[in-house]
Specification:
Elements (H helix, E strand, L loop, with lengths): L14 H4 L14 E2 L2 E5 L6 H10 L3 E4 L1 H9 L5 E2 H5 L14 H8 L5 H9 L8 E4 L4 H7 L6 H9 L4 H11 L5 E3 L5 H10 L3 E2 L1 H39 L18 E6 L12 E5 L11 E5 L4 H21 L3 E6 L2 E7 L5 H6 L2 H6 L8 H12 L7 E5 L5 H7 L4 E6 L4 H8 L7 E5 L8 E6 L2 E6 L22 H15 L5 E6 L2 E7 L4 H17 L3 H4 L9 H13 L4 H8 L11 H9 L7 E4 L7 H7 L5 E4 L6 H10 L3 E4 L8
Parallel strand pairs: 2-3, 2-5, 3-4, 5-6, 13-14, 14-15, 20-21, 21-22
Antiparallel strand pairs: 1-7, 8-9, 10-15, 11-12, 11-13, 16-17, 18-19, 18-20
Helix pairs in contact: 7-8, 9-11, 12-18, 15-16, 16-17, 19-24
């Protein structure tokens, strides 16, 4: 018999629950299948005329429906109407065209199966169909374009764009891909024709399986879009009925369902940790067409899971700095928080000495540091201890000067909107060719909503698209001091930086760069204390005793960075001190308490700015900020303790601006 038989159920399992259909004889993937008969019924007619002309020129019989048949016939392509094959007209305003045994018999008949071939012959259903060309009604476009989507009239129009015959042909042909090729997109036509040419007028098994997989993916996305729309309407109906006091419908309540489709891009070595396998990168498929592109391109190296978390977050940070301030921006990221962020602002002589800018400039042809190079140099030197092994982000095209500055640093990778050829060559050679170079797509259309899956629960939120600008910070809530354009720039820099820092977070900025970031603390005052300590270390690195440390020749760059921080903090153990001394020709003279106090007092002259990702609930954060001479603060405001916080700012002579936009980041 040709009818598939079900396997026997396992012991203790119901027959219906366990029943699985066994394979039909001859249903395995076959060798190349000659193309003799094609069914063409498309809504989107892009490229279909050229496709059919080429098929017809090879003697392929073309069956078609309605408007498609009319277009082909007018273009001089010989066409057989489906209604002539079925001996039945299209009915119900075109709702029923191809739903007929004379179409689906030849589509589903298994090649080489005598019973199937006998059925086709005895019922006069014609020869097997070897190719199906179809695409679907634009349901999503209809649903999105409805002016009043919930009105009965709009719903009727949307429902009319739910395709029935198309998905039926699509799935039938895809199921029977052992003998049938199914084309579901104009983008497939050229590859299909090339496959037919290379197989002497036949389709290869590999091509048919690939096309079938794409067809089922399209069908799944299409049905998902319909289900999302329909369940939302049903849920809204139930909610409205409940509000009117009507009795609920019997059975389980209908809840909106959401389907998300991803397209695999590449595998990752592992996830957060080496024991977390099955890691990969996927692009979100958009719409039923399944368009799926990553917002970046890998130009060099193999990014890891955490690399990509850093890259995607850091890119948004520098992109928004460029948008909000109109200047080149850079960020140095570690574990999904910035160690530093900065703008392409020229360096003072004091900072140039602390950042070793003169030695760096010698590596750059002409010795000139471009805005992108300056932004990177500042970002990396905000907290060079934490930037060790970082991921870099640049808002602008990376030039040769910037690449030469990055070259000697210990870093995992970089993301930027583009690279000069020489810069790409320099960066691609780092880490023995393993340095990760990603090119971001500045024009990538990001989804409006963000999703996260945790322990079987999915969370959704609207993406935080707010961009801080100097104008968005508002007016001071305090009486003094005056807020200059440079201060508004630094406040904007700090607010944008903490937006992409693990919460709770605050950040200090001065002179066009971050100087201390306090990330991921449960208490906001602890964020301020952490960031203030980092800002003090940044400032102390500019002290002459730090700049004049007598390092031994050949001491590595990061060893110098670490040794300077140990020298500044002065809290190393006896054993640590012995190891520390090995980096010097002689033991350095310590910075006295008086020298430290006097030097730190001068930090107040730098117009230090502070931003917080959320309101200060108590004045303690302001008290802690005052210890490094902070003069300007921006925060959302909105706490019941705002009055006390403003009063504290007044006591310290700080200007405080409320911008009203909380930016937690988790």
């Amino acid at each position: 018999s040709a009818r598939p038989r079900s396997r026997a159920p396992r012991s203790g399992v119901s027959d219906m629950a366990a029943r699985v259909l066994s394979a039909v004889k001859g249903g395995a993937i076959a060798a190349p299948v000659p193309v003799r008969r094609a069914l063409v019924s498309v809504f989107d007619k892009t490229g279909v005329l050229d496709l059919c002309r080429k098929l017809a020129s090879q003697g392929v019989e073309i069956l078609s429906t309605g408007g498609t048949a009319k277009s082909l016939r007018e273009a001089g392509v010989a066409v057989t109407d489906v209604s002539d094959v079925t001996d039945f007209p299209e009915i119900l305003d075109g709702r029923v065209k191809t739903l007929h045994p004379a179409i689906h018999g030849p589509l589903l008949a298994v090649r080489g199966n005598e019973a199937h071939e006998g059925d086709l012959k005895s019922h006069k259903l014609g020869a097997p169909i070897d190719v199906v060309v179809t695409n679907l009604y634009p349901f999503e476009k209809a649903a999105a374009g409805a002016e009043q989507p919930d009105s009965p009239e709009a719903a009727s129009e949307v429902i009319e764009n739910i395709d029935i015959g198309g998905p039926t042909m699509l799935r039938a042909a895809a199921k029977n891909h052992a003998g049938v090729a199914v084309l579901s997109s104009p983008e497939q036509y050229d590859a299909f024709l090339a496959d037919v040419r290379s197989n002497d007028g036949s389709t290869s098994a590999g091509m048919r399986r690939s096309l079938a997989a794409q067809a089922f993916a399209l069908s799944a996305r299409y049905d998902a879009a319909v289900a999302q729309w329909m369940t939302r309407l049903a849920s809204d109906d139930a909610a409205a009925a409940e509000a009117d006091g009507a009795a609920p419908l019997p059975g389980a309540p209908v809840r909106p369902v959401v389907f998300r489709s991803y397209v695999h891009h590449s595998n990752l070595k592992y996830g957060n940790n080496p024991h977390q396998g099955n890691a990969g990168v996927f692009a979100l498929a958009k719409g039923t067409a399944g368009d799926a592109a990553l917002p970046f391109e890998v130009l060099n190296g193999s990014p890891g899971y955490i690399n990509l978390l850093d890259a995607l977050n850091s890119w948004q940070l520098v992109r928004e700095l460029r948008e909000g301030l109109g200047q080149a921006a850079a960020a140095s990221f570690k574990h999904v928080s910035p160690a530093g962020a900065a703008l392409g602002v020229p360096l003072s002589d004091q900072l140039a000495a602390a950042y070793d800018a003169s030695a760096i400039a010698k590596r750059v042809p002409g010795g000139a540091l471009t805005p992108a190079a300056l932004a990177y140099l500042r970002a990396r030197n905000a907290d060079p201890l934490c930037s060790f092994g970082d991921f870099v982000a640049l808002s602008d095209v990376v030039d040769e000067a910037t690449a030469l500055i990055i070259k000697p640093e210990v870093s995992d990778g970089i993301i930027a909107p583009g690279y000069e050829p020489e810069a790409l060559k320099i960066l691609s050679a780092k880490k023995k060719g393993g340095f990760i170079v990603l090119q971001a797509d500045p024009d990538a259309e990001l989804p409006a909503d963000e999703w996260r899956e945790l322990h079987g629960v999915a969370l959704r939120q609207r993406r935080n698209t707010f961009v801080y600008t100097p104008e968005s910070l508002g007016k001071p809530e305090t009486s003094s001091p005056e807020v200059s354009e440079a201060v508004r720039r630094d406040l904007t820099l700090a607010a944008t930086t903490v937006k992409y820092t693990q919460s709770n977070s605050v950040g200090f900025a001065a002179g066009g760069q971050m100087i201390g970031i306090g990330a991921g603390q449960q208490s906001r005052v602890d964020c301020v204390k952490l960031a203030a300590r980092k800002a003090q270390t940044w400032w102390m690195r500019q002290h002459h005793k730090v700049l004049e440390l007598p390092f031994k020749a050949g001491t590595k760059r990061q060893t110098r960075v670490n040794a300077r921080v140990q020298f500044i903090e002065g809290t190393i153990t006896e054993a640590e001190h012995a190891a520390w001394l090995k980096s010097f020709d002689e033991e350095p003279a310590p910075i006295s308490a008086e020298e430290r106090e006097a030097w730190l007092a001068a930090l107040a002259e730098e117009q230090v700015c502070l931003a917080s990702d959320a309101f200060f609930p108590f004045r303690d954060g302001i008290d802690a900020a005052s210890t490094i001479g902070t003069k300007f603060v921006t925060q959302p405001g909105g706490s019941i303790g705002d009055a006390a916080v403003i009063e504290a700012a007044e006591e310290y002579g700080m200007a405080m601006l409320f911008h009203g936009m909380r930016s937690f980041h988790h």
